[in-house]
Amino acid sequence: MGASEGTPRRLGGGRSRCPHCGLPRDRVATLGHEWVMLEPDLRPLAHEVPAGHRWIELSDGRVTVYGVCPPDPFQRCRIEHRLACPERSLPDLWPWLTDRRSENARRGEDVRRTERWHAPEPEPPPEEWPDAG
Ligand SMILES: [Zn+2]
Questions:
Q1: Residue 17 Cα, ligand 1 centroid: separation in angstroms?
Q2: How far is the CA of 20 from the centre of ligand 1 (A)?
Q3: How many domains does the chain divide into?
Q4: In this structure, is residue 104 part of a structural domain?
Q5: Listed residue (21, 9, 114) closest to 62, CA to CA
Q6: From the CA of 38, how far away is ligand 1's center (Å)?
Q7: Is there a contact between 49 and 94 (Cβ–Cβ < 8 Å)?
């Protein structure tokens, strides 16, 4: 499944500026005949990128979402600029983690409600260190 090396043709792609942050993005054709804006000069290991956000380059210069699971430990990929854009909020990268967070928010509510019944006095704030000078 190694990505074959070749001279990547850009197929009408190129660089454009992000309308949100003004930084350059690579405009690359996808296998689905669409365009995706990729972060330039960044090729993280695929297994460090959430599934569904791993774009790999094909020999003709187009990109597609990497579908191998679990990923080859040495496979590098590209990510969309929107994930790295400082002016945009992150999409839901880890849905299972988002589920866990909302579950924990509920559990935290329950714990705090229960503890109010027989809560010990709250810890006093830590004293400031006496002035040593
Ligand atoms: Zn941006």
A1: 8
A2: 5
A3: 1
A4: no
A5: 9
A6: 10
A7: no
